[in-house]
Structure formats: C-alpha cells, structure tokens
C-alpha cells in the first residue's frame, strides 16, 4: 500500500495525481514555483486543497467529506529552514512533539531520536548556537520523534554547504534504512534526487510529468518538457523513414539513425533525445567500420573542462545548425586529446536514442 | 511637597489598566498579526486613533459616552449605584481605551515576527491551538508583550488631557500625579510641582530603559536563530 494523492486546486495551480511507494524515499523534483512545497503542505494538512484525496493505506486524510487536522496525521515535517523553536533547547524542541507521552517517556524518546540523528551531545543548546547541519539534524530528530508513517522533507539541504550536504545524504539513507518509513523529499537538485531517492516524481506547473524509478526517469525522459527539466540538452527532430518489429529508422538531416523502437507508424516528424554521457567517441586509430552504430561525423566547436568531466560541443557535418553536446571523463581526454576544430566521429547506440512523445 | 495620594492613585490606575487591557490586547494583536482580510487597515486605524487625536477630543467623546444621558452611563449607574464619569472606574475605562495602541502595536509586531515555518512546525508536532499559543507563540512574542506592558504603564502615569476631561481632578478619586502637578503650578507651588515632576520623570525613564534593556536581551538571545 502507498500514499495516494489526487490534488486539484487553483492558486497555487495543482492538477496532480501520484502514488508514493511505501517504505521508499521518493523525490519530488521540479523547478521553483512548480508546486512542490504546496503538495508537501497539502499532505501535511497545512494547505487546504479545493479538491483533494490523500489516502495512506486505506485511511483517507483528505477527501470530499473530511480534512483531518495536521496533528492527527501520521507525518513528520522538516521544513526548508528547519522551523526550530528558537526559544527552546534542542531537547525541548524534540520533546515538544512528544506531548502525548509522560514527562519521563518524553525525555527517553527525545534522547533516543537525538542519538539516531547523531546530535545527542547538543541537548542543552539553543538553535542559534547550532550550525546549519546541526539544525537540520535536530529538525530531523524532531520529525521522526512521533514515529510517523510519512516523513516530509522540504528542500532540507538547500541551506547547507556542499561538503556537509554529502555527509547528510549518507546519514539520511542510514536513518531511512533503520526506520523504514515512507519519505517524500522535495528538491530541485537532480544529483540530490539521484543519490537519495529510489523513486522520482517530475513535476512542472502543478502537473506530474513523469514518475518511476529514479534511474529510469533520469535516463528515459517521456517528452521534451521532461527532457528539459532533466537538463538533457540533446533534443532533436527527425522524420520516421520505416519501422519494423525491432528497429525503426529515422532520417536526421543527411544521416540515417537506427533506433530500438518498434511499431512506430506514419512518416511524420518525431522528437528524440540522447544523453550527453551516452554519446560515444570513436577512436581515430581504430575505426570499426560497419560495426559502428549510427556513426556521425562531427567537428569540435568547443571543449569545456568541468573538473572531472569535459563537455565537448560538436557540430554535425552536413547539418551545421544542430549542436550535439557530449560529456567525457577527464581521463578519456588525456588518452584521446581532441581540440577545437578537429574532426571526430561519434556514434549514437540505437538503444540510447530516446524517442519522445 | 509630594502628593502621595496622587502618586498611589496614578500607580493604581496604571496597574488596573494593565489588568483590563493586556489580555484582550494580546488576543487582538495575535488576531491582527495572523489574519489577513480586506477591512484590516480600518480596524488597525481605529485602534491607532488615540495616537493622533488630541486628548481633548478623545476626552470629550468619552465624557459624552459615559455621561448620565448615555446608555453606558445609565447602565453603569443602575448596576453600581454611582456615575461612571468623574469616578475612578471612568478613569480606568478612559485609560484602557487611550492605551490600546501602546498595548496592541508592540504585541502585534512580536506575533508577526514568528515565522510561518514555526507555526507549521508546531502543528506538525501535534500541538493543539492552546498548546501552540502558550508553549510557542506567547514565549516568542514575550519581548513585544513586555514592551507593551511597560509602554502602557509609563503612558498611564503621564496621561493628562483625557484624565482631566473624564476625571475632573477630584482629590483621592481621580486626581492623578500629572493633574496634581498641574494644580500645584496653578497655585504657584513650584517646589511641590518640581518634586512630583522629577518623580514622574525618573519613573518613566526607568520603566522605558528597563523595558528596552529586557527586550534587547531577549532579542539578542534569539537573533541568530
């Protein structure tokens, strides 16, 4: 059973239906203003939605007849700026969420949660005496204190520096393995989603664009809009020449591309995408001739070093208005140096060409 | 020479005003801070009127409202057997009304300063409305409420125009310290007027300085959080 959501609302605009798998970390990814925070607030019961159906394992928190108050929902929330109570100590902050327990049990459970979040030594401190990372951990300890079935994390790492963020990713994964609750992580950072979440919901303007396993969504965008949001620059148009049971053939400028997609009909225009890291550089000293899949002769327009990666901008021969972006590991550049103006052959494997809807 | 009866009456008036004014002022301040509606600037404007209207104008309207011909005046006389105007009770009513902006505005600013995230975190922690109010909102708004208390106290001690209009300066009943100073000056008793003025100056200065100091200390503790 999962957390099922159906949200329709004006201002903020939402037309969103999704299933969030139980016991997994799911990332809700989209640009600023796409409705991510509104969705998380609606799940928490902090935003009343015009037409909402929010059900967890058969129990509806929101439907036509009722709107369960936030305090009665089995949720824990870590807001973007942590939302710690500034006048209370770290221990006081966590104990506040345990008011249903006796004073003794409250203390025991609060210390247990602070220990799980690795901040048990900070019990007496106040929020203004903590670093960003420590505040984030305290907020997490407070959110898990009531043992919620659903943990909502609203861009919890956005105010934290990069080095600390990497450590916190590992801690969150460890904590999730220990607790096993359903986690919905709001982020606009694709790397963060890739490192933390097993499932991904891609959203724009309040609508779900694509949902599925993180790796699948990140590498197989469904349409051009999804490809744009996933920061995939190589989106092109071609015309369909033929389609058989296993392969289809596209005409792309002067080139013919074989694509692993069966059953395409008509001869109209189709859009396709190729991930920059899936473009293969053919070694000049060892041509494979007919073994190459979709070989494309190109001219290097620019080489941009990105640390451990290199971005190569390529102009397609015979199709100069099209620019292809290729990413190579930095060590590949050391073995096969290429420079601006040089001619190289790249190949696009038929299985790496993604046809877009 | 010091008019101790007037001193005691002024302090008594300031304390009773606090007692009647603060609870509704805190509720009103919270309501104005956390809600947004079309007529809100008008309500805020009405509450701030005592800051801009001349005390004689407020005093005149209060006198009319409390007089024997008014509903409030008649009702009070039937219930307590004495007129509201020119009595200590009338003075309390006037003082409460005149001090509304001094109590509401600092408290409202303090409630407004509590972030939405903190309010929402309180709900997610399972707190009820009252638990949120007394465990989270009230302690966080405390510097503003403290400031409201001090300002109301100091302002009541120094209030002159409205008190004179509504109370009439009856010794032992409505003659506060500021009115006693006025009377002493009228009688050319500058020595007594000077002593009492100095007392009022010291009380006001200490009250405001202590208030600012406490607010500053509280704010410093929370500033970076």
Account of the 3D structure:
Chain A is an alpha+beta fold and about 350 residues long. Chain A has two domains: about 5-220, P-loop containing nucleotide triphosphate hydrolases (Rossmann fold, 3-Layer(aba) Sandwich); about 235-355, OB fold (Dihydrolipoamide Acetyltransferase, E2P). Chain A has helices spanning about 35-45, 90-95, 105-115, 130-145, 160-180, 190-195, 215-220, 225-230, 330-335, and strands spanning about 5-10, 15-20, 25-30, 50-55, 60, 75-80, 150-155, 180-185, 200-205, 205-215, 235-245, 250, 255-260, 270-275, 280, 295-305, 310-315, 320-330, 345-350, 355. In chain A, α2 packs parallel to α4 and α3 packs across α4. The longest helix of chain A has 18 residues, at about 160-180. With about 220 residues, chain B is an all-alpha fold. Chain B is built from eleven helices and no strands. The relative contact order of chain B is 0.16. At the A-B interface, β6 of A face α7 and α8 of B.
Short description:
With 357 residues, chain A is α+β, with helices and mostly antiparallel strands.
Quickly list its features.
heterodimer; A: 357 residues; alpha+beta; Rossmann fold; OB fold (Dihydrolipoamide Acetyltransferase, E2P); 2 domains; 6-stranded mixed sheet; 5-stranded antiparallel sheet; 9 helices; 20 strands; elongated; B: 225 residues; mainly alpha; MetI-like fold; 11 helices; 80% helix
CATH class label of the largest domain in chain A: Alpha Beta
The general outline of chain B is globular
Q: What would the average pLDDT of chain B be, to the nearest integer?
A: 89
Fraction in beta strands of chain A:
25-35%
Topology, please?
The complex is a heterodimer of chains A (357) and B (225).
Chain A: E1 3-9, E2 14-20, E3 25-29, H1 36-44, E4 51-56, E5 59-62, E6 75-78, H2 90-96, H3 103-116, H4 132-144, E7 150-154, H5 162-179, E8 182-187, H6 190-196, E9 199-204, E10 207-213, H7 214-219, H8 224-229, E11 235-243, E12 248-252, E13 255-259, E14 269-273, E15 279-281, E16 295-305, E17 309-316, E18 319-329, H9 330-335, E19 343-348, E20 354-356
Parallel strand pairs in A: 3-8, 3-9, 6-7, 7-8
Antiparallel strand pairs in A: 1-2, 1-4, 4-5, 9-10, 11-12, 11-14, 12-13, 14-20, 15-19, 16-17, 16-19, 17-18
Helix pairs in contact in A: 2-4, 3-4
Chain B: H1 4-34, H2 40-52, H3 55-66, H4 71-80, H5 88-98, H6 100-112, H7 116-124, H8 129-158, H9 161-167, H10 177-186, H11 190-222
Helix pairs in contact in B: 1-5, 1-6, 1-8, 1-10, 2-6, 3-9, 5-9, 6-8, 7-8, 8-11, 10-11
């Amino acid at each position: 059973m999962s957390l099922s959501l159906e949200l329709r609302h004006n201002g903020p605009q939402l037309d969103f239906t999704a299933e969030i798998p139980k016991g997994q970390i799911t990332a809700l990814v989209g640009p600023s203003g796409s409705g991510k925070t509104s969705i998380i607030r609606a799940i928490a019961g902090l935003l009343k939605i015009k037409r909402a159906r929010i059900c967890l394992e058969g129990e509806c928190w929101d439907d036509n007849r009722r709107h369960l108050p936030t305090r009665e929902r089995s949720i824990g929330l870590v807001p973007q700026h942590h939302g710690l109570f500034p006048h209370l100590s770290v221990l006081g902050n966590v104990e506040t969420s345990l008011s249903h327990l006796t004073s003794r049990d409250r203390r025991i459970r609060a210390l247990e949660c602070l220990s799980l979040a690795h901040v048990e030594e900070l019990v007496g401190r106040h929020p203004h005496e903590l670093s960003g990372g420590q505040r984030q951990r305290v907020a997490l300890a407070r959110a898990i204190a009531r043992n919620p079935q659903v943990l909502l994390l609203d861009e919890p790492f956005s105010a934290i520096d990069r080095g600390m963020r990497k450590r916190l990713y590992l801690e969150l994964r460890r904590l999730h393995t220990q607790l096993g609750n359903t986690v919905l992580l709001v982020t606009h950072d694709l790397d963060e989603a890739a490192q933390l979440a097993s499932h991904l919901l891609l959203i724009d303007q309040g609508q779900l664009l694509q949902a599925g396993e993180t790796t699948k969504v990140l590498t197989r965008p469904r349409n051009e809009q999804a490809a744009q949001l996933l920061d995939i620059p190589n989106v092109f148009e071609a015309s369909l020449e033929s389609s058989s049971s296993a392969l289809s053939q596209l005409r792309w400028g002067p080139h013919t591309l074989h694509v692993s997609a069966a059953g395409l009909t008509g001869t109209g225009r189709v859009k396709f995408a190729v991930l920059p890291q899936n473009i293969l550089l053919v070694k000049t000293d060892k041509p494979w001739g007919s073994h190459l899949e979709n070989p494309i002769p190109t001219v290097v327009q620019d080489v941009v070093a990105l640390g451990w990666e290199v971005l190569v901008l390529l102009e397609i021969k015979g199709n100069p208005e099209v620019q292809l972006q290729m990413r190579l590991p930095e060590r590949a550049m050391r073995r096969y140096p290429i420079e601006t103006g040089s001619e190289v052959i790249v190949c696009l494997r038929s299985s790496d060409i993604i046809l877009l809807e | 020479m010091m008019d101790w009866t007037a001193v005691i009456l002024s302090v008594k008036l300031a304390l009773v005003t606090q007692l009647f004014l603060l609870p509704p002022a805190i509720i009103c301040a919270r309501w104005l801070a956390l809600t947004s509606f079309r007529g809100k600037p008008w309500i805020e404007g009405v509450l701030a009127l005592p800051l801009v209207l001349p005390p004689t104008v407020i005093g005149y309207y209060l006198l009319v409202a409390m007089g024997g011909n008014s509903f409030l005046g008649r009702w009070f006389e039937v219930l307590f057997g004495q007129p509201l105007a020119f009595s200590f009770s009338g003075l309390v009513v006037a003082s409460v009304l005149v001090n509304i902006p001094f109590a509401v505005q600092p408290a409202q600013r303090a409630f407004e300063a509590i972030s939405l995230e903190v309010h929402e975190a309180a709900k997610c922690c399972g707190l009820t409305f009252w638990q949120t109010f007394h465990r989270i909102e009230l302690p966080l708004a405390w510097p503003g409420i403290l400031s409201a208390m001090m300002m109301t106290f100091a302002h009541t001690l120094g209030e002159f125009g409205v008190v004179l209009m509504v109370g009439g300066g009856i010794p032992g009943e409505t003659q506060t310290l500021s009115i006693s100073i006025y009377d002493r000056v009228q009688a050319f008793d500058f020595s007594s007027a000077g002593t009492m003025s100095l007392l009022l100056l010291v009380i006001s200065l200490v009250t405001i300085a202590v208030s600012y100091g406490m607010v500053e200390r509280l704010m410093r503790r929370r500033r970076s959080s």
